[in-house]
Amino acid sequence: MSLGYHQGLLEAKQFLRSREQVVFTLAFPAILITVFGSIFKGDIGAGVGFTQYFVTGMIGTGLMTAGFQSLAIQIPAERDRGVLKRFLGTPMPRWVYFAGKVIMVGFIAVLETVILLTVATLFFGLELPSTGDKWLTFLWVSVLGITACTLCGVAFSSVARTGRSAPAVVTPVALVLQFISGVFFVFTSLPGWMQTVAGFFPLKWLCQGLRSVFLPESFGAQEPGGSFDLPRVAIVLGVWCVVALLLCLTTFKWTTKRDG
């Protein structure tokens, strides 16, 4: 456990030393909520302000960026540079590498969420959850969501053939999922086929679970199933965790084809 902890500290330090990555990962959701919150100031229905709804999508996309997008781009780059191959040549257990990534993702997710909630609360009138049950729901939905996104990021890292091609492979997938999962728009305003497709992926369910935390109970009637349906949120995210873990175990690549 000590090895995993120190590997996590190393990963976090490397992240903080990359200014571009820090700005994009930590500041981008806050910048988006600043832009959208300044433009759209009205209600979306049932007395719910746009910011109150939009922040759920921003938290969800922030968790996906920290877990899925960052790892699916970072790991191929490290594989291409021979970092993973050199890691195999050390006596360090393989699980330590992944433990470091998990700690780094957790650190980024917490910091990013705190920044986002602070900006939305101070400048755009976001109402934070008022009960312990709401915060507990926020905790387990976030943990399940970031776990699923992290495992999906590790599994998807084997798709890109080179580190240079990874952003081109990963970024379109992340953007499409954001647009069809109710991040930038009210989910029920999207075409039916988009809602159906989004239902197969974890981001839609992560955002739905977060909406149950920040929106009034009455707003659940406007969800596709007539409620926030938290049991199904937990089941779908849990299934994605299992499926993505199996894909990690069976498809993860430590070396490139040229390394043999």
From TrEMBL:
Residues 20-255 form the ABC transmembrane type-2 domain. It is a multi-pass membrane protein. Keywords: Antibiotic resistance, Cell membrane, Membrane, Transmembrane, Transmembrane helix, Transport. The chain crosses the membrane at residues 21-40, 52-75, 95-123, 135-156, 168-187, 233-252. InterPro entries: ABC2_TM, ABC2_TM_bact-type, ABC_2_transport, Nod_factor_ABC_transporter. The keyword Magnesium does not apply. It is found in: Cell membrane; Membrane. Belongs to the ABC-2 integral membrane protein family. PANTHER family: NODULATION PROTEIN J. This is Transport permease protein. It comes from Paractinoplanes pyxinae.
